[in-house]
Recover the amino acids of this structure.
């Protein structure tokens, strides 16, 4: 004779199953909340670290490809060669830095003379990098030439690019500025082969309209005080604070509101504060703060 389960036994077993199921579901839901919150916090921290370290690396390269060392022989700084650009303040920084692989040197003519306002054609060792960066007939793009001059001095010239022919290494330019001020006058003469590099400018700033840290590059440097900037890319979102502090070689704080002050900057502190992209399960949005100090490797020598 087969005996089945009584109603009471079924109810007891069903109750036990429901209790165990509820406990498992609650544990799963709790783990899902923890995973969701940890993912938001990790994403916030990783985004902030990536953004601030990219900014620090690029600021460290400020002045690369710019004749700041030769400008050290000048009596005063100049807007055409200073590394930290006008418009820099506590929430944004503008600076020159040669990031594209365009550096090369002039192989002809020798000597080469750059006179203000005068078209000059030079042949460089390799014009491919420059051509790849700006094209054959760029508008508003400039290159620097710098190197040894007479009397144990260094000269530089800044020139707008008219055309580039990578197959022959020919670069046609028009001289826009020469230096150092007080030494080179209106012409820069190079008995030997000067170096050449593309002038590039970068802006990093806090965008209050989107609460984000953004980066852009200059598309035209015809006016070095007011460059034309390309549309900016977002480096990190949900930013509550982005601050830049500037210091000179003695560690004194500098307000970069003048050419003289910007020329003294050798170190920049960056402070970035971000919050999670969404609320956590407890309806809070925790913040994460990170600070980095970066020394400008190509700071002007004094």
């Amino acid at each position: 004779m087969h005996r089945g389960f009584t109603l009471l036994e079924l109810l007891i077993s069903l109750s036990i199953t429901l209790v165990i199921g509820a406990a498992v579901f609650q544990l799963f839901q709790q783990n899902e909340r923890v995973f969701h919150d940890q993912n938001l916090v990790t994403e916030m921290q990783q985004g902030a670290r990536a953004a601030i370290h990219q900014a620090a690396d690029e600021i460290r390269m400020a002045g690369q490809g710019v004749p700041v060392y030769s400008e050290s022989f000048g009596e005063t700084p100049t807007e055409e060669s200073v590394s930290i650009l006008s418009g820099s303040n506590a929430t944004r920084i503008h600076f020159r830095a040669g990031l594209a692989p365009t550096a090369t040197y002039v192989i002809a003519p020798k000597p080469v003379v750059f006179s203000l306002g005068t078209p000059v054609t030079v042949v460089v060792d390799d014009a491919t990098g420059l051509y790849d960066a700006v094209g054959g007939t760029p508008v508003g793009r400039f290159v620097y030439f710098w190197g040894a001059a007479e009397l144990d001095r260094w000269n530089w010239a800044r020139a707008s690019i008219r055309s580039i022919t990578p197959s022959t290494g020919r670069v046609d330019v028009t001289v826009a500025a020469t230096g150092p001020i007080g030494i080179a006058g209106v012409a820069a003469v190079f008995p030997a082969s000067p170096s050449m590099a593309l002038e590039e400018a970068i802006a990093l700033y806090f965008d209050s309209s989107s609460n984000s840290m953004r980066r852009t590059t200059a598309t035209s440097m015809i006016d070095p005080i007011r460059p034309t900037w390309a549309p900016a890319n977002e480096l990190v979102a949900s930013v509550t604070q982005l601050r830049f502090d500037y210091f000179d070689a003695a560690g004194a704080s500098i307000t970069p509101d003048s050419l003289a002050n910007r020329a003294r900057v050798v170190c920049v502190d960056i402070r970035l504060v971000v919050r999670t992209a969404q609320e956590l399960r407890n309806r809070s949005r925790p913040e994460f703060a990170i600070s980095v100090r970066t020394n400008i490797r190509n700071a002007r020598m004094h």
